[in-house]
Hints:
Blueprint: E1 8-17, E2 20-24, E3 30-34, E4 55-63, E5 69-72, H1 94-111
Parallel strand pairs: 3-5
Antiparallel strand pairs: 1-2, 1-4, 2-3, 4-5
Amino acid sequence: MQLESGAVVEGRVTRLTDFGAFIQFENGETGLVHISQIAHSFVRSVRDHLEEGQTVEVKVLGRDEKGRLDLSIKELLDEPEEMPRPRAIGRQSPQFEAKLRSFMRDAKERTTGGGGDRKGGKKGGKR
């Protein structure tokens, strides 16, 4: 069996690591499914998705410069219709925005000489 880029083959998970899973094929060759190629969603732990001894179907992505097989499980899965979006930060309350504008206006007046010294303390020299 020749494992070429684009081939879809079945193999057995022989070892799990923090960065992926090693898959062995009938011909004795082994390749790596990197953690980023396990699922479309974020994979915190490879062990949450795969077990040693499990038979899986993988797609051969190609070979790296050292001739090692790069594999993917994710490429064979249907893509979710819509990827989850990060939760948007809600608009601040109008009261907060009014207080912030007032604070900024007062700060500008203090720094441009609109009354009092810059430190807001007593007038008339250093302490």
